[in-house]
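Hi everyone,

Forwarding the result from last night's run.
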Amino acid sequence: MATLATVLAGCVGHHLSRDTQKTVRMTYVHVANVYQLATADGALSPRGKDDRGFWAVFDICSLYMRGMSLKGFTFDVQDFHVIVGDQRYDASRSYRVLTTFAGEVDAQDDPARRLIADRLGLAPEQQYFPKEPYPALAYRLVVAIPEWPEAYLGEPMTLGHSDPEVTLINVSERPPREWQQYDRFSSGPLVSTCPRQTLPAQKSASVQP
């Protein structure tokens, strides 16, 4: 009996330690496609094979976590990718940027990186979120599409994540806005198209970049 009790206790303990409900769920919208970005210094655009590259701009609208063992979630831009037909574009993918003031530069070069982030209003590249609901997050990221995808017709793109425990739900209510040239100073900030989310004040949290 003592042996049986020990075995049962071990089984129960093992069962409780398995967190099958450990998941992260995000909603997102595809806000815009920006082909050329105007700055005070000049213009920038993603450089591809056909000179039809663009930045696909997304907003993460909300973030929810569940699971007893899940204490929080680290948002990292490098973990996202876009699927168009049979083509995949990773946010971590290295690409070139054509500028009117410095020729071709790497997108990871500090000046280009800062200009893109500032003009498009990007969120921090990394952010830790403690476990609680974030119904009005509005965290912005971009994925560079260096050349025009053959299967793309202008519809909201599918955003994916490298972690299989992360579920991404597209809540775009309209196609992304097309900007042949976007100038934040003359046009104003790109407005988020996230649907409005309402939760009781004591149960909601909002984090802005």
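The chain is about 15% helix and 40% strand.

Cheers,
N.
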